[in-house]
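User: Just a sanity check before I run the rest of the batch. Below are the structure tokens for the first item. I only need the designed sequence back.
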């Protein structure tokens, strides 16, 4: 039987999260409305079409469509969907992730429409800012960024200098939504307690997952379905920093999955990577 398996390997390492002080995202709260919608990782960008095709659009695409590091094939961090300001209708307004881009030097109708989402005076009165965020503008669970500046060139440079801030903002929001969805139906508390007592570590396990393997240094749980959802935990002794490189982690993953999980490692038709 062919089996499609979705893998997500989480390697827990003592990690220090550094938040740069050069640019902080100022966040305000909005109203509670109907639920936001959209596919995970999708970001709706509303800005002037000429700016989208120019330097400003290039800076945004570079920030949001960069490849996810550490995976075996190219995959963008986010799915970016551009919308002309005049076409930003009530359906699109329900999107979970929004970005509005406005500059004072844009003379087009699209530029004027986007500026109306925030007052011209705000842009003029806050020359030290280029980014603010707001929750629940049109829907509950929605997160939006406003990117603004006096000129297109200035804003493009702000985005290039602070692309990690923009990425981290949406990554954090996506993780929060993912966790909320994963544990909506509860957790496998008994399995979590078993891991803590036998191995000395614990993770939160969503309802519906079953133990598929419990060997020395390898623990695997899966949720059967048209596309299997799997989580496995494995480890080995540390010898060098090369083990933590992209190539080293992928090689370690493959050495485990080809032996422990794939039905027939010699036949790619029995699995998907």
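Assistant: Here's the designed sequence for the first item:
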């Amino acid at each position: 039987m062919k089996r499609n398996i979705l893998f997500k390997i989480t390697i827990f390492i003592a990690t220090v999260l550094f938040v740069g002080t050069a640019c902080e995202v100022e966040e305000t709260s909005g109203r509670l409305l109907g639920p936001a919608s959209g596919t995970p990782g999708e970001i709706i960008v509303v800005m002037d079409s000429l700016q989208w095709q120019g330097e400003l659009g290039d800076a945004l695409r570079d920030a949001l469509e960069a490849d996810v590091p550490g995976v075996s094939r190219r995959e963008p961090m986010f799915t970016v969907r551009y919308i002309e300001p005049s076409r930003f209708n009530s359906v699109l307004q329900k999107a979970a992730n929004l970005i509005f881009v406005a500059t004072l030097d844009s003379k087009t109708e699209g530029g004027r429409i986007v500026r109306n989402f925030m007052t011209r005076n705000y842009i003029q009165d806050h020359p030290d800012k280029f980014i603010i965020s707001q929750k629940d503008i049109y829907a509950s669970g929605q997160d939006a960024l406003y990117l603004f500046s006096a000129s297109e060139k200035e804003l493009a440079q702000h985005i290039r200098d602070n692309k990690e801030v923009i990425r981290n903002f949406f990554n954090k929001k996506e993780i929060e939504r993912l966790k909320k969805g994963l544990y909506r139906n509860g957790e496998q508390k008994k399995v979590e307690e078993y891991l803590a007592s036998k191995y000395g570590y614990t993770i939160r396990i969503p309802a519906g997952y079953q133990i598929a393997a419990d060997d020395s240094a390898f623990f695997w749980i899966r949720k059967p379905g048209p596309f299997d959802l799997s989580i496995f935990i494995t480890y080995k002794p540390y010898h060098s920093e090369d083990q933590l490189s992209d190539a080293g982690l992928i090689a370690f993953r493959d050495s485990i999955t080809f032996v422990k999980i794939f039905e027939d490692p010699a036949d790619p038709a029995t699995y998907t990577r």
